[in-house]
Design goal:
Elements (H helix, E strand, L loop, with lengths): L1 H38 L4 E6 L3 E6 L6 E3 L12 H5 L4 E2 L13 E5 L5 E5 L2 E2 L24 E3 L52
């Protein structure tokens, strides 16, 4: 009897040891997943500014601007303009922060680079902003149009009527133009009317 109880106790101890090992491995995996999720840096961030309230910045806290001369999903700032107002360029997937009141998208600059846009409008830095939180470019009229800090006091997403897709893949795939059906070059001949039968004799 004591031998049977000893064998049963040994099996139970081994079972409990296996269960404890599995639970420990599951907890470790969950903690690792949480740590990896916390290590992910978003493409843009929302930062509290003493004058403007919430402003949109890059992952390092440098202020981002929009330009009134741009068009949805199209940048018109190149050459000397891009030297003073460098575009926010990414080379990987967009990572959207929690609570962003708008959609991020990518703008093809035509030189192999992709610029980040908010609700379709390209985002830029200002050359004179040397520290995180600087807003020296707000209201500037350089290159013929106004530059604005993307801030809550003028609505972070002020072009809400234009909403591109959320979380686009990188690089975005261009959609092919729909194919048009070719019309046959031979026109359909009109039906000939049948001659009415003559009077019966």
């Amino acid at each position: 009897m004591s031998t049977y109880l000893g064998a049963t106790g040994g099996r139970l101890a081994r079972f409990l040891l296996i269960v404890a090992t599995v639970l420990a491995m599951t907890a470790t995996t969950s903690l690792n997943n949480v740590a990896r999720a916390q290590d992910v840096t978003p493409t843009v961030m929302l930062m509290q500014h003493p004058t403007y309230g919430l402003i949109l910045t890059d992952s390092s806290g440098f202020t981002l601007y929009t330009w009134e001369a741009d068009e949805p999903l199209m940048s018109n700032c190149y050459d000397a303009c891009a030297d003073e107002w460098p575009p926010l360029i990414v080379s990987d997937q967009l990572i959207i922060p929690t609570g962003l009141p708008g959609a991020l998208d990518l703008v093809d600059r035509g030189d192999g680079t992709w610029q980040v846009a908010l609700d379709g409008w390209p985002l830029y830095y200002f050359w004179a902003d040397t520290q995180a939180g600087d807003v020296k470019g707000d209201g500037d009229l350089g290159f013929g149009a106004r530059w604005d800090v993307v801030a809550s006091h003028r609505r972070l997403s002020r072009w809400s009527r234009f909403r591109p897709r959320q979380s686009p893949r990188f690089p975005p795939r261009s959609r092919p133009w729909p194919s048009r059906r070719r019309r046959s070059s031979t026109r359909r001949q009109p039906r000939r009317s049948r001659p009415s039968p003559g009077p019966r004799t």
